[in-house]
Design goal:
With 204 residues, the protein is α/β, with parallel strands linked by helices. It has eight helices and seven strands. It has one domain: Rossmann fold, CATH 3.40.50. Helix 1 runs parallel beside helix 2. The longest helix has 16 residues. This is Cytokinin riboside 5'-monophosphate phosphoribohydrolase LOG protein. It comes from Dioscorea alata (Purple yam).
């Protein structure tokens, strides 16, 4: 992926702020790094919690913000004025397909909803439905246990070693976006999929 094409990041995050200030700071720092590098945002569409912090910071920085949200969650996750462009969809699958269509890479942080979205994008990468890198913002070791589990799954033969590189993690936004090694991995991400779904279109 050439640097000229790396224009948009989809951030999977939540409608909660978390108990520690460090998570809120990390969300704002991630947004600032995106603005600094002229990267637009695709996200879950809400304006509360970490979603609200990231989207507001990116939008205030002059970058385009696209929120993709199921209609049933609009009353719960949008309070007051919406941020940027908001596209409502009928269900979660359409939401993720639309997010994938509009982004160059994925970054995950937070809880159940994020994990569900994150692992679907990882699976899609493994199957060849998309060829976009997936990244974890591993704040204060938040994802250490998950990364350990993935390594264990590889050792036990349930995940192919060649699929391990789908995920790359970093402890802070600057390292994740500005680090030359990781940025090179983002731009030169080489997909390795099982070629079982290359001709499928899961946008519908």
């Amino acid at each position: 992926m050439s640097i000229s094409k790396f224009k948009t990041i989809c951030v999977f995050c939540g409608s909660s702020l978390g108990k520690k200030q460090i998570y809120q700071d990390a969300a704002i720092n991630l947004a600032k790094e995106m603005v600094l590098r002229s990267i637009d945002l695709v996200y879950g569409g809400g304006n509360i919690g970490l979603m609200g912090l990231i989207s507001e910071t990116v939008f205030d920085g002059g970058r385009h913000v696209l929120g993709v949200i199921p209609k049933t969650l609009m009353g719960k996750e949008i309070i007051g004025v919406t941020i940027g462009e908001v596209k409502p969809f009928v269900n979660m699958h359409q939401r993720k397909a639309e997010m994938s269509r509009h982004t160059n890479a994925f970054i995950g942080m937070c809880g159940y909803g994020t994990l569900e979205e994150l692992f679907e994008m990882i699976t899609w990468a493994q199957l060849g439905i998309h060829n976009k890198p997936v990244r974890l913002l591993n704040i204060d070791g938040y994802y250490n246990s998950l990364l350990f589990f993935i390594n264990q799954a590889i050792e036990e033969g349930f995940i192919k070693p060649s699929a391990q590189h789908i995920i790359v993690s970093a402890s802070n936004a600057k390292e994740l976006i500005a680090n030359s090694k990781i940025l090179l991995q983002l731009r030169e991400y080489y997909p390795c999929h099982e070629e079982v779904a290359l001709k499928l279109n899961w946008n519908s």
